[in-house]
Description:
CATH topology: TIM Barrel
Number of domains: 1
Strand order of the largest sheet: 7-6-5-4-3-2-1-8
Strand content: 15-25%
CATH architecture: Alpha-Beta Barrel
CATH class: Alpha Beta
Number of helices: 9
Number of strands: 8
Structural class: alpha/beta
Helix content: 40-55%
Radius of gyration: 17 Å
Amino acid sequence: MENQKVLANINSLKKKIKQNKDIEIIAISKRQPIERIISALDSGHKIFGENQVQETINKWPVLRKKYSDIKLHLVGPLQSNKVKDAISIFDVIQTVDREKIAKALKKEESNLKKKISYMIQINTGKEPQKSGIMPDDADNFFKYCKEDLKLNITGLMCIPPYEEDSSIHFAYLKKKKLEYKLPYLSMGMSEDYEKAITLGATHIRVGTAIFGKRPQK
């Protein structure tokens, strides 16, 4: 399966760059046929990413009954009316990007008596159509989430502009991770995950490279 090919590529690259740290491959399973997801699960893969809370709730509880130790990451924008459901089903939310969402997450953690992990999404390309805190606001937002709200912020995430060299954005995110003394960086997708690893990614988000192209609706 393609999953094994990605694992082989990453292991090969880690040797080249003398990086021994484990890199988590987040299999992006949004809108993928259930049989492809089951194939990945049967191959032993445990970490998956979804873009939408509702789709996740519709399909993953059943799968979790059969497959243990699954870890789910939210990698798409989070709406405030979905925060409760998001905390109930996800292990990691990678797209914390504004005070309103951060406050809602803190409130629902208290209500549900559940702590999960978070990453702050930074809009490194300053694209108005994209989610993520703007770079100029990132320092204050990180302090607010970490110190004021005491959220479990473990890393940073970005989605670089499609038409730009992603290396510049990955290097920026690595710099901020070091400044904030965080352990994780989620960056790199099917087309540029190797580049992301060389620049310090600890989590890569790959969909097509594992599952192939999504079926057209």
